[in-house]
Amino acid sequence: MTITILGSGTSQGIPVIGCECDVCKSSDSRDKRLRTSILIESGDTTICVDAGPDFRQQMLRENVKHLDAILITHHHKDHIGGLDDVRSFNFLQHFSMPVYASPDSQEEIRREFSYAFAEKDKLYPGAPTFNLIDIIDGKSIVINNLTIEPIPLRHLEMLCYGFRIGNFAYITDFSYISDDSLNKLKGVDYLIIEALRKEKHYSHICLSEAIDIAQRLGVKKAWFTHIGHQMGLTEETNKTLPANMMLAYDGLKIEV
Questions:
Q1: Following DSSP, what letter does each residue of 195-216 receive, concatenated?
Q2: What is the pTM of this model?
């Protein structure tokens, strides 16, 4: 299984518009971050976690020609804003895109892309088409050869989902993880986890909190994502991290 970091930045991406900080002005390509998302490829199966405003750019950069499904962590704009562009896959694949999401996220998708859910006789021919599917706590998602376990999290008061596939897990955009959800992550060897910045935040975990979770789980390797421009330069930050941990960056490919 190959995981590609499509985007590793926070909701504004990096560089942030109008910002003159050292991170935003960095010449290191690893400090240029699109909105957070990953691509998972296993055999003939390709799925994406989240489709933010940079979805089109990310699909083109990675030359994705086929997409079996999209998993939605939650319905903030930086995670669903690019769903309109699934219409290219609708055209190529001749089916509605399966989108796995919580009921609340589905409601927001229906509101945000209302033109895609119009009555058949009023549906614009070029609109994207979605097959919205419930994420249910305790019920695995099976997509071809992949079995995916949803991990419930809390993003302030919002329900958010991480996902586990075998010994790999991806968890982002959360401020609280229950003991039950932590137990569902036991045995994970490879973890991608958010780390917004070094200072604590009210709705995201910070770097020290992400390190603590990775260490409690005893993972072999951890990558930090959903990184804000307050974190510091990638090269400098990596030097301060445990040997088995590093900042993720756009385009990074992880073989599991």
A1: ---SS--SSS--HHHHHHHHHH
A2: 0.97
Q: Which residues does residue 142 pair with via DSSP β-bridges, in sequence order?
A: 147
Residue range 79-93: mean pLDDT, rounded: 98
Confidence of residue 125 (pLDDT cuts 50, 70, 90): confident
What pLDDT score was predicted for residue 70? 98
For the stretch 68-90, what's the b/e string if a residue is b when 16 or more beta carbons lie within 10 angstroms of its beta carbon?
bbbbbbbbbebbbbbbbbbbbbb
Here the tokens at position 192 are 């991608």
The one-letter amino acid code at 218 reads: G
With DSSP H G I counted as helix, E B as strand and the rest as coil, what are the percentages for the chain, rounded to 5?
Answer: 25, 30, 45
Is-contact 147 165, C-beta < 8 A? yes
CA 9 to mean position of chain CA atoms: 10
